[in-house]
Amino acid sequence: MWSFFARDPIKDFNYEILPENQEKSGIWTLSRGKRKTTGEPVSVFVYEVSQGTEEQTQLAKAAFKRTKTLRHPNILSYVDGLETEKSLYIVTEPVTTLAAHLKLQAEKGGASDLEVSWGLHQIVKALSFLVNDCHLNHNNLGMWAVFVDRAGEWKLGGLDHVTSNQGESTSLPPPKVINPDLERYDPPESPGGGGDKWTGDVWRLGCLIWEVFNGNLPRASSLRSLGKIPKQLVPHYCELVGANPKIRPNPARFLLNCRSPGGFMNNSFVESCLFLEEIQIKEPAEKQQFFQDLSENLDSFPENFCKHKVLPQLLTAFEFGNAGAVVLTPLFKVGKYLSAEEYQQKIIPVIVKMFSSTDRAMRIRLLQQMEQFIQYLNEAAVNSQIFPHVVHGFTDTNPAIREQTVKSMLLLAPKLNETNLNQELMRHFARLQARDDQGPIRCNTTVCLGKIAPYLNAGMRQRVLISAFSRATKDPFPASRAAGVLGFAATHQYYSVVESASRILPTLCTLTVDPDKNVRDQAFKAIKSFLSKLETVSEDPSKLAEIEKDVTALAQTGGSAATWAGWAVTGVSSLTSKLIRNAPAGSEAPPAENSPVPQPAAGPAPTNTASKGVQQDRSYVSCQRLCPMELTFSSEAVKKQSSDWSSGWDADDSWSNEKDADGQGQSSPADEGWGNDWDEDGSLAESFSPTPRSKASTRAPKSGRLSSAQEGVRLASDYNWDGAEGKSATSDLFILVFSVRENRKCFTNNHAFTPSGLSKAELAKKKREERRKELEAKRAERKAAKGPLKLGARKLD
């Protein structure tokens, strides 16, 4: 009666058994399952009492007990279990049989020797634990007793026939009684015929090794044929299957032999796996070295092992081990194996946390490798959690940080919101272009601005582009002037006909007499492009609307501007190679050969104080290759070349305070608001910088000479970022050089001379000098009028 009201215990079981992909494993049926509450995957071994014999039921109950009580990293992990009158359930970590795993690997080209070496290492270690530590014999070792988890690690199971090796009696039947086919795996000697307690298990270990490399064992005599067993393993394999049981080694001894120099288990994969197993007790210095070396070995590691074994350790090392930047390179390598959903769940939260780090090595590696994870970042995280930390790099005292920050904007711009893109980012770009003392960074700022122009709103494009590119054309650094010209050409569709005629062409025309021939060539090509557009409208005014259709176009979404991404420094190759290789030390922009441009007669001659050091060591030049792309100027295609850039320029004007060809300031309603970032005297305001640099490091020198402190500017390549390496694809878009700045005379692009015979730059310098002397004279007069100070009087000025 009471049994009628009793609940079925299976209904209260916390796990659901899935019907598909069931496999037979001895007397058990291996099924996939999941936890009902969380959906966590598991494996469930099921034995139906009604379908088995009394001996099999006895073995099943013995296996249930052993699996529940034996705990070892290399033995199948017990999670839960249920024993009823009708069936037995053993819940373990999700695994598959070794036979099924090897079959799947064979379809992919076969399991590698590295994977097999680690798998056998784990099985031998588990067997050694049973024999030497637990004083037990397995008695059932074979393909059917080995299972493989998600990480590709081998686990020892099949504990049905485990018995004590200390002489205790047992009532369990031998394997061949349950399954006669297993008789071929029995050792040749009779039970108790001599030898140590482990002789039977190590014989079956030899049979397992033979089957792993050669497939199913047809008969015991086949063990004499080595087949595909690796040469390093052959001597040790022969010891296992020797006819004399007394010479068969202990499992621990066999493991030691295989780990000896030149042994089958002596390789980088096994070493890495052993280190990961003991990583919690390793010293911090050892962990740092391990993660640095891990990146080189990951390519040869199995994919599943990287995802399920290496990745959790990397995340743990960052979260709790203070591993720092060294985990980034292996972390992103492993990330390539993850799906988009897994990447979002496991790696993105860690990356977002990394951006808040103050470690410079961490920051620069994140910026260098941003291309590997940018597609997984959502816009909300970029704007609220990443961009506020990234912008601090614009004002960093180290040129390499500023360089990588500028380059990262190419990837972040499509995900930035209106405020961050059109206001905050433009403010930092204005500062870099006007005040950075590194020519390549100023040039790359211009390059980056041209690339992200399609993402800006129409109002900001009209307000910024012409002023920014006009400023670049006045840069003493030749590559910056070329970038300004190419910026105009690449964004020509965003300018109205009136702007092209009244603002752009006058600016470009001044470059037709540039000291460098390549800059002049680019200027002529750009002028022809704009003149062609003006001629088209002049001949057919009805085409005006079509030509200006993009002037007020809405900002593009991510990826829309990829077709012209290679415009940056087209045609600058010969210009900069001439600058680096042939230019005399002490000059930043030497005139091109056969240049028709007259040089100003007035002004101090530059001194070559740094030329000796430059001639002795040219290691300061650090350049990267450009991606092979083309930029079309109307009907002309200009092929990209690689180039090298040096540094240095004198910046006085803001983007909103440009001068036209006749020296008059251009002021438009679109430009007036942009000038708020500058003081009344035209110098850039310092107040907005989150981490302001010193004045000496942020302002470009006002003369051709450098202070003694600035003559030792370090190169980006001189900084050791804790072994940081890595090169993102976006680095191909830039050519960056951080060189020792030499005493030099900065050339200007305003070649027109005033009636007094002085150039505009010299005239402005003369006026500033006169003003300074006038202020000093007035200050001296005030002091003289007051007379000497009396004792105890307070100085008010």
UniProtKB/TrEMBL annotation:
Residue ranges of the region described as Disordered: 583-616, 637-709, 758-797
Endpoints of the signal sequence: none
Compositional bias ranges of the Polar residues kind: 606-616, 686-697
Domain of life of the source: Eukaryota
Family: Belongs to the protein kinase superfamily.
Described purpose of this protein according to its UniProt entry: Regulates COPI-mediated retrograde protein traffic at the interface between the Golgi apparatus and the endoplasmic reticulum. Involved in the maintenance of the Golgi apparatus morphology.
Protein's name according to its UniProt entry: N-terminal kinase-like protein
Species in which this protein is naturally found: Cyprinus carpio
